[in-house]
């Protein structure tokens, strides 16, 4: 008996020793250089418990698919064009001069008007994880029309599952229009703390103001929208699902057009087509259809797909990842080129960009930019946007590719773009 017990004891001790060694080896393995990255992304721990996105065969609807829009009649309902009565047309034309948008038309249209469902029919049948990350929708504005700004907020609140919407964060880039002062503060009280308002104390420009919004946001994901949008049905879960799967993925909704003079809502792209963002060597942003060889291997045309870049205005990203990348380069001026800067940084730091056909957001394309850059542009010689492009290229392109840009934009050679400070810790992330 005793002999057996001693043997058992020994066996037990040996077992403990082996278990301890295995444990230590596992800890060393976790901290080896290849895996440190995984740990910091959180994917190693969460992978086993994460829910999957699945496509439901048959007629079954996906878990976040809402009821159809009730049939309503009224100005602009159904996304139809709206026209002013003759006695208001002058006023309407004047507002186009002031805002680049016909605000008199906008004011006559309901904040929550119905709009056509422009998605691929498949989109109704996707099942998304129930524990998607909470999101701060960040909306930067400068002298925006009141009703277009508020319609953006109304549609976000009405058409997002509340459990995934941490807040809508409005960031005012030093507007001076009276309607955006107290009346705005009073209006958003109806949403209690769900809608927050921050104000810059001087003009900072879109790029820096967005970075401020990202820093002050409370959600795990930040989602930037322009200040004149209408989000469409079930727009949010499809944008969050890829980020939930991998925090280094940035997601981009497909944009529909809203006419600045009639508020007609219509798709920009042909039905069923999938486009993605590219750039040419003079840094002109373009879009091309997804190549057939990529489309062929995708089981569903409505599934997200990789894209080199994006137009800039509307996208979602893990907040901490965005800040780890140094947010937007603070040396970029006002507007332009920030979409490329962020895209290049994402790919060169191991991340990627996905366009999401099942997330549709309407955007008013303005007739022109209704404001100037004020003091922001005074100190600089040369076109701001070319200075920005030069800065992005000098930082992120290899010599060979820089030459392609200078061949297209020879004048850029003599422009000065200022000193560049690498974001802290980014060197370890760059994959050469
Ligand atoms: Mn816009």
UniProtKB/TrEMBL annotation:
InterPro entries: GalNAc-T, Glyco_trans_2-like, Nucleotide-diphossugar_trans. Residues 62-93 are annotated as: Disordered. It is found in: Endomembrane system; Membrane. One of its GO terms (cellular component) is membrane. GO terms for biological process: protein O-linked glycosylation. Keywords: Disulfide bond, Glycosyltransferase, Manganese, Membrane, Metal-binding, Signal-anchor, Transferase, Transmembrane, Transmembrane helix. Belongs to the glycosyltransferase 2 family. GalNAc-T subfamily. This is N-acetylgalactosaminyltransferase 7.
